[in-house]
Amino acid sequence: MKPKRLKLLIAYDGRLFTGWQSQAAGNGIQDHIERALAKIVGSPVRIHGSGRTDAGVHALGQVAHFEEPPQTRTTARWQIALNANLPPEIRILKVTRAPGTKQGFHARYSATGKRYTYRIWNDRFLHPFELGRAWLVPYPLDLATLRAAAAVLVGRHDFAGFAANRGEPDESTIRTISDIRIAKRGPLITFTFEGEGFLYKMVRLLTGSLIRVGQGRGDLAWLQAILSGAKKSNHCAPPDGLCLAKVFYR
Asked: Which residues are marked as active site?
């Protein structure tokens, strides 16, 4: 019999960590969860995430899975045990037994899309409660212009101009963005990006480029030129305001 997989729904404040992926220094979110699992079961346990988040990036809906060891527990007991052995900045929101499919559930390969949010604090100074959770943009932003610029990016495009180099080339830089929503409440502007998948630093580069247009320092033709491959954006928003909000599965 194949071992059963447990699916984790994870939230974390990314400020103290080197990102999701395991690192040599042992301070990735993955490292902390794997150490907690090893402490619980008494042997190494490998976890697989839906994708990487960078240092300083947060999550409300990261998903991971691991093979359930022989000493089975209820999903509620797994959640309690994991949270008892994790830093308070990392929390397991839910543990479920992964749905059975012909191919088998996989946190990364079974995902059909993701939702990211990016928070902009558009004021003269950053509210102390927003430290590390929003990007301070102290210049006027035109909301109508931002939304018009976002509409240019929605659809299936080659987003190579909005991707950073991770040292390993992507098989394809073509992605589909199904929706970009922009909402404003007081000084807080929230961008919501939904799509089938995103390239390395793509959401941060999209956000930085949109803000440049919203400030009047770029226009729709400039965005189109990046999409056409004539230019490449180097306007990368900081990690502070970015959050992996949800991973979609069938």
From this structure: 54
